[in-house]
Structure formats: C-alpha cells, structure tokens
TrEMBL record, chains A, B:
PANTHER family: CARBAMOYL DEHYDRATASE HYPE, HYDROGENASE ISOENZYMES FORMATION PROTEIN HYPE. Belongs to the HypE family. InterPro entries: HypE (IPR011854), PurM-like_C_dom (IPR010918), PurM-like_C_sf (IPR036676), PurM-like_N (IPR016188), PurM-like_N_sf (IPR036921). This is Hydrogenase expression/formation protein HypE. It comes from Anoxybacter fermentans.
Amino acid sequence: MSDKILLGHGSGGTMTRKLIENLIVKTLGNPTLNKLTDAATLNLPSGRLAMTTDSFVVTPPVFPGGDIGKLAVYGTINDLVMVGTKPFYLSLAFILEEGIELELFRRIVDSIAEAAENVGVEIVTGDTKVVEKGKGDQIYINTTGIGIIPDGIEMSPERIQVGDKVILSGTMGDHGITILACRKGLEMKTDLKSDCAPLHRLVNAMLDVEPKIRVMRDPTRGGVASVLNEIAEQAGVEIKVEESRVPILPQVQGMCDLLGLDPFHVANEGKLIAVVPAESAEEVLSAMRALPEGKDAAIIGEVVAKTEYPEVFVETEIGTTRILEMLAGDQLPRIC
Amino acid sequence: MSDKILLGHGSGGTMTRKLIENLIVKTLGNPTLNKLTDAATLNLPSGRLAMTTDSFVVTPPVFPGGDIGKLAVYGTINDLVMVGTKPFYLSLAFILEEGIELELFRRIVDSIAEAAENVGVEIVTGDTKVVEKGKGDQIYINTTGIGIIPDGIEMSPERIQVGDKVILSGTMGDHGITILACRKGLEMKTDLKSDCAPLHRLVNAMLDVEPKIRVMRDPTRGGVASVLNEIAEQAGVEIKVEESRVPILPQVQGMCDLLGLDPFHVANEGKLIAVVPAESAEEVLSAMRALPEGKDAAIIGEVVAKTEYPEVFVETEIGTTRILEMLAGDQLPRIC
C-alpha cells in the first residue's frame, strides 16, 4: 500500500477496497460493518429512536487532548445524550485530501476505534471519498449517530420554569483556547488541553437523580453564551448568570483577556449545560461532582422570569450587569 | 443576509442560526427538524432497522440531469433500497467553502427538498460547517439514511446459486460520462445527462414479483465491473456477462471509445444490478420494463459456477472472452 492517500483510494475500485479492508475494517470491524453491504442492518430495543449528525473540520486534526477522530465520535455521542438517548450505532464518512500521510489516517482511525469502544457504540456503516490536493484540508469526518430514548425521559425547553437552576458541568472554553493556542504555535507555553470527552456517564448520573431535568445542551460552537440564548429563546425566559460562579481555568481566562475574547463565546467539547428544577439542583450537582468529568460542575445561574423578550444577562464580579449575546460573526473558524 | 457564504455562517452563533432558520428550515422544514434540538426524536414502525451513509463531493456541483443535492438524497436512498429497506429519515450535513454564492446554496437546498419530497423521506437533523476559501470545493454534503426492512426480505450474496440471472436496470455509464463531458466543456455537444434517480419504486416492483431476489447493488463509483466483482467474491461464484446484451447509449459508448475508457468502470447514479433466480428472471424483467426507470432493463448475464476463484468475464460481441476486473486506480475522481 502507498504511504500516502491517493485519488484512487476514493475510486470505488480495488484501491478503495484495500484501504477499507486493510485499515478501516481491520481497526473498526464488527459483524455488521464487516459485511460491507450498501446499508447496515441493525438491532435496537424498542423505544423512541433519536438521530443526530455532525461534520468535523477542525484544524489542526491532532491537538493537545484529542484529535478529529475522537472529537467526531464524542461530539456525536454528546448530541445524542443531550436529549437523554442511549447511543447504539454510528456511521462514519471520511473526506480525505489527496496526498495526506496514511500514517495520519491510521492514527485517526485508531482514535475512532478507541473512542467508540470507550462509549460502547458500534461503527456500522461508512464511506470514504478522496478529493484533489487543495480541495480539502487533510481530513474531514461526518459521524451520524442513532440510539434509543428510554421511556420517561422527555427533555424540552417548554418545561422550563421560573426558579430553575442552570448548571455548567465544568470549566469553560478549554477546547477553543487549546485549538487557538495550537494554531498560533503557543501550545508549548501552556499545559492546556482540549476537554474533548464523552458525556454519557455524566448524563446517566444526572438523570438517575432527577429524571425531570428540563433540558441539556453541550456548548460547542458559539460557546455557553449561544446555548443559553437558544434555551432562553425556545423557553421564552430570562436567564441570569453569576459570573463569579462560572468555572474557568486561569490560563483560559488569561488567553481570553490577552486576545480580547469573551470566554462565554469559546467552544467546549466535553461540557454540558443543564436546566434543573430548583429543588433537586444541589442533588444533581453532587452526583455530577462525584464523577471526574463533572468534578468542577457549578450552579452558574437561574431562570428569573417568563418573558416575551428572552434574554441572558450576566451579573459581573464587580456587581454590574451585562447582556450576554449569542456569538455574532465568527470568532475562530473550524473549532470542531 | 450577505449574498455569499461567510465563515460566520459556520460559527454556531447568530449567523449560523439565521442561515438555518431563513434558508434551510424554511425549505426543508417539518415538525421534527423545526425543533432544532441536538438530536431528532423519530417514530418508526417495528422491523429491522437499516442505516447507510455517503458523503458527496461531485464536481461540478450542478450538472446536466442533476446536482449534488439531488445526488445526495437519491444516492443515500438507493443504498437503503438495495437491501430492501423502506427509507424513512435522512440527516443532512453541509461543508461549505467560504465565499460561495448563497444563490448556489439555495438552489441545492431547493433540490434536496424536491428530491426528499419525491421519495417521501423527511430530513430530520442537520449540520452546517464553513471552511476557509481553498479548503473545500464549493459544497460537500453528507446524507445518512435510516429505514425499515420489511419481514421476509433477506438479500445476501450467500443465497446466490448457479443459473441465477444478472439484470442491469438500464443504460450503463450515463452519469460518469456526463460529468466527464461537463468538466471538459463538452456538454454542449451532446444531449447526454446524468441518470441520477431514485430506485425505490423499481425495487418495490421487483420485490413484489420475486421476494427472493438474491442481491441488489447500485453500480456507482467503480461501475458495473466493480459491483459484479464484489458480488462474485462475496458469493464465491463465476459470473458471465454477454456484452451484446448490456444496454449502453451510443454517445456513452462513443465517448468511452474516444477516451479509452471501459464503460463497465464508469459510474451510474440511477441504475441497479440484481441477481435473480432463473425461473422468475423474465417476470422480474417485465415488471422493471413497465416503469420508466427500468424501461431499458436487460438480463446481461448469469452465474455460471461456484468457485474458489471468483471471477467475472465478458463474452464480447465478436465471440472472444475477456476478464472483467474491478476498477484499479482512479478513472475519474469526484464523480459523486
């Protein structure tokens, strides 16, 4: 096999076949995928089916704390678990740029295998395309996931009530600032790494304590600010955030100050925001803090009013108030 | 709204939101998609679930007989129906290149809406990423589809028996040669167009006549030759094709002769190959010919032996025999 990806690897002929058999299936194989049929036949328990899709175009494809493969698996898993789904199956589609090192591709596929194993999902169907040099950027991945939502779980912004607490599961902005530092060649000066992680275990622990969690979202592109604004808008409420309670690493805050970025707009890849009934918020928080992925969780705010003019505002540490807007324009492209 | 796609349209902030609400949801909307949750909640009848994924990178994105949007919907539908699935839901993920005209994007989304409506599937979840100019090529699309395989349908190459007939549903190579002509600026000199079409109706008609069809495949990348070789290998058989019986348009044959291409390696996007029990082959063929998408269907060959050395060979019109190999290397990149 060549040590680089060639256009022929996307031809649908013998080269494609060899790449798929010798590398992809060998690493990710299972009885369903191994059949290499046009569509995979699956078994699922009965229940409500959930489906989500994401394409990943992050640059660089390998960064401190993760790579595009891990990100693709966990990102899609996280979208499923945000609506309470138990994930079962993933599809996996590559768009490779001609000329990339086979070694890089192999590393990403290994990382995908490890991430899928870690979450307990199977890759059941896939696709590999190759585009000419200069028509892509090394590797783009689409993962689409399906799973089952257990009975009794029914999250929806409409259930949000005044007094509900807003919980953030950990420090804000780690992924975005890591990628930024990495691109600017600053990665040697900090031990910062991406928070890229799956949230299934955390979500299970939370729903065990309080099945009536109103809504959960993972603040990826657009950051915490964009997710809170989406929730406020969909629920028709005003949300207050207390800045002093928002967990953030000093390196992340420092980089944001230096670069004039608002950390509320910076992407996360292993964090969630949950709106939880006030009476069970402390108990949910304790369950979260008992897990490594929730050890820095905090109640960062609450729902203060129903309103026709949904809004998110921050009470700053010096006692002033500012409106927290959705990210406008683009802060940092290709974060995921 | 700007008349071009900007990086901000992929930021996850207000620009992303406006693009999704004002263009994508307005065109493709349905109660499930409109919720814009991280994962869509779906209803499916009971039965075996099937899943397939494909990324589309065809260039140019608009070509005679179709465009990348139509191709993405029909391509994924066709992969589902090849295993007898009734398609229900699609996910849709875009990778857009910064700077492309919003008008082109709108046209593609309209085309997706029309194709989905035509097949009776819903787009239930999606994703939009934007990459910098020069890091993509206008528009790449991933569609992942799920559906249900009715009881009693069980296609698999292992069921293939000696004597089974091989049917091709229509003329070979139309899509590949159209794209090639289009890229070389030859499109004005011919009325050739892509065969890009959904195959669900044809498959239903065939399974109504013969539920025990052994296997069906759509000969896209790699062409008829690659699909026949895959089938031969998976079934452990020798397949004979009679060249004189293979339907092909004179323009396609002419272009292939001119360019030194083997039409058996050229991609199709609205054709299928089926291996059918000998006793019902004529009846299946009649049912196919009764539909516009199967009007040129023909029995092109048969399974001649079980073997440890699977092989496909062609009896040429002049009475000689040649081995039909899978496509090696790449004939024409980015055909789909």
